[in-house]
Amino acid sequence: MKPTEIAQARSRSYQLLSRLFLQGVTPEILSMVQAAPELAAALPDPVDFDELAAVHYQLFGMNVFPYESIFLDDSGLLGGRVTDGVIRSYGRFGFTADTAVDSA
Questions:
Q1: CB atoms near residue 82 (< 10 Å)
Q2: Which sequence spans correspond to the domains of the chain?
Q3: Quick one: how far is CA 41 from the chain centroid?
């Protein structure tokens, strides 16, 4: 496969994954999901779009905040030992997190 073909295939894959993340399995993209054996294996038989929409909402629509410490720190607050551990992990891979608080 040529590099441009690989890039195009990746682009289509990322587009499908982003649609699945944002919308879940819809009738419009069902055929694309079925064409990917790894994804098709996770589909129920028969496909019930109402049930799939409910599962998608349960996973992604419940306003779960992207702050690990809220869930893992005993205090239930932002920051603390859990956040410090994440920042150290980032640092091991060369990423420096901006921890400044925006007061605007």
A1: 19
A2: 3-44
A3: 19
- For residue range 4-53, list pLDDT tens digits in order: 999 999 999 999 999 999 999 999 999 999 999 999 999 999 999 999 99
Q: Is the pTM of this model over 0.70?
A: no
Q: Count CA within 13 A, CB hemisphere, residue 101.
A: 3
Mind giving me the DSSP string for 34-99?
HHSHHHHTTS-SS--HHHHHHHHHHHHSS---S-HHHHHSTT--SSHHHHHHHHHHHHHTT-----
For residues 8, 13, 19, 22, the Cα torsion angle rounded to the nearest 10 degrees is -120
Hey, what are 53's tokens?
A: 């929409």
82 and 73 in contact (C-beta within 8 Å)? yes
